[in-house]
Design goal:
Elements lengths: L4 E5 L11 H15 L3 E7 L10 E4 L3 E6 L2 H4 L6 E2 L2 E2 L3 H19 L5 E5 L5 H7 L12 E6 L7 E3 L19 E2 L2 E3 H8 L2 E4 L2 H6 L10 H6 L4 E3 L27 H14 L9 E5 L8 H12 L4 E5 L4 H13 L4 E4 L4 H10 L2 E4 L9 H7 L3 E5 L2 H6 L13 E3 L4 H16 L1 H12 L5 H16 L1
Parallel strand pairs: 1-2, 1-7, 2-4, 7-8, 8-12, 12-13, 14-15, 14-17, 15-16, 17-18, 18-19
Antiparallel strand pairs: 3-4, 5-6, 9-11, 10-11
Helix pairs in contact: 1-16, 3-4, 4-5, 8-11, 9-10, 9-14
Amino acid sequence: MEKLKVLFASSEVVPFAKTGGLADVAGSLPIALEELGVDTRIIMPKYGSVKARGNSTTIGKDVKVYFVENDDYFNRKELYGDKYGDYADNLDRFVFFCKQALERCIKENFKPDIIHCNDWQAALIPVYLNTTYKYDPIFAGTKTLFTVHNLAYQGLFPKEEFPKTGLDWVLFHIHYFEFYGKVNLMKAGMVYSDAISTVSPTYAKEILTKEFGCGLEGVLAERKAALYGILNGIDYSVWNPATDKKLFKNYSADTIDDKYENKEALQKELGLKVDRSIPMIGMISRLADQKGMDLVAKIIGDLLNMKVQFVVLGTGDQKYHVLLEKMAKAHPNNTSMNLKFDAVLAQKIYAASDLFLLPSKYEPCGLSQMISFKYGTIPVARKTGGLKDSVHEFDLKTNVGNGFTFDDHRADQFFTAIKKALTAYQNKDVWRALVKKVMALDFSWESSARDYLALYTKIRG
């Protein structure tokens, strides 16, 4: 039987370029699919960060990565914008990318069974397949899957820019591109693709509601029969405390005491009291309302008056920088506020912390809870999106569950969940068993890749 052929179109891919979780998915899922016997290829823009690599390369055993080259568009320091905002020519840039993705298939004589398009930057591919390239024999049997990684970012542009797509004005219509007088690329991608997926089963349900639908809940409701939720995985070759070179000391579920050596080493490095019995609470996040920083702001005073250490890493809204700096001054003995991006410190925090806070307003998938589990750090998470699918309330009596959760986006519920976790932490035997249990959980890409393979097969019909 001939191998299934999949082209994975993404605007960012690890290890070449990254701003968020999309890059992790795009760098891991194709490799997991390759392991399942799929001929997977990736296409992405050739940014400044990829300049040295020629026009194609490989990841995994033999996953070809094609680069779309245009120095005027892609040879820039950042991917989508700078400190002044989004690049003014983003529509031109990603129109070019989407057309070139299809041209590259023709050039390579690669006839994809599925083109897997990710987020608004790749959303024009299903549109062009159904219009400009409709009768091209290369794409005779090609189907499309469009994956939404975060519905809040839709690729919105002024109506006047629509001609840049090269499409007929008749498509600037409420059933296709038009969205409150603007051009909406994500909407068109959803309308034209054969199926839509998102990055967790719960988020797939949430985006059908007004609260989470970002104005597209009507479009999604019309396509509900073709909407799927598949939970992301993580790459355990990167996220594994037994092999992580960034840690003070490697450890596994069999050598949990070495986790606490990491805790003492980080306490020392950050100028906190060196004492492994004090619960260390970690948070690595964009400092924004979406990530629940508004809830953190409401409880931080009460939290820091308890016998805990609070270690934060991240950047974001100025108001939260100001708040956290103020708290660090008021509570110098039990806080470490690191308002920056630091990949090495991030892994040390995952390893050293006892608890990890995830109070998100919404969270399509979330990878931090999966990383926390692997590092034996227990999440306190709001039940939303992928957090709801992966973090389940721990019961002290039955030992069922793997973390601490709360329902509503409310500070009192969040604080109650933290206090529950701290109560469990006091029972050393229970806590140790919980740490061992979560380290054994499997959120590898393999099971997600099988779900995607089943979906590709279904789409081909």
